[in-house]
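Hi V.,

You were right to ask for the full record rather than a summary. Here it is.
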Amino acid sequence: MKTVLISFIYLAVSLLILIFARFIFKKFVKYDLTEEAKSCNATAIVPYGGFLFGMVFILAAAYSGNSVNAFYIDLLTYIGYSILGLCLMIFSGWIVEKTVLYKFNNVDEIVRDRNMGTAAVHFGIYVASGLIISACIAGDNQSVHNLKYYGFISTIVYYCLGILFLTFFTKLYDIMTPFSLLEEIEKDNVAVGVAFGGNIIAIGIILMKATLGDVGTWQHGLLLYFIDLSAIILILPCVRYVLDKFIVQSIKIGEEIKNNNIAAGFTEAFAIICFALLIFFIIDFVNMV
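Predicted structure:
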């Protein structure tokens, strides 16, 4: 009965955190979610959906950590990691606007133009960020390393590394595709936004896998990220090759996406996420080196 009561307490606290997170999100995005929903603007809700998914990943990871203290201390630690994760998620939204989709006003595209491609990229960034942050805070790193603030510090450090990777991948993706990523998204090319958002989620899954568990020393952790970088560089051309040669043989996936073939965009997004999930379940980055 005590365990059930504790679970309900955590659930209640989680709901309060999600309510608070929605309030903070509305302040950050600079548009009224309720008004956009009333006006049937589904585009404005898509980024919030990604944000919610990311927050749930973070809350689940914070809760899954091993209990090593009194109940109230564990609860405060849970709240602390959740708030830290919320702050990092908000920062991820800022990163999208300033370093990924920096050539145009994101709010105008989502609210005024109802650009679903822009919304899809925001969705992908939020989901990927949630996956990365949840991996950073999963487990009880503080007790393993016997350092008071190790868990919080490692969460921030590995999150920053993950965001750097995502930003780098934006440039890499732009180079490897037969179109200008930002120009196509600004022109309301939904297929490009969906495909790119799927790629971002795939990268988040791989980075989550590499970060899960205790990676040991900082040097070992950084080495794992270099391995991740190699995997990321190989993913896109491999998936594109498989799509072109074996799945959609009669069309060129890149050209179809450029022509705003939304089906092609979803095909690439689904394929690369599936490829990333295979890596997640099969490849053990932690024990690789």
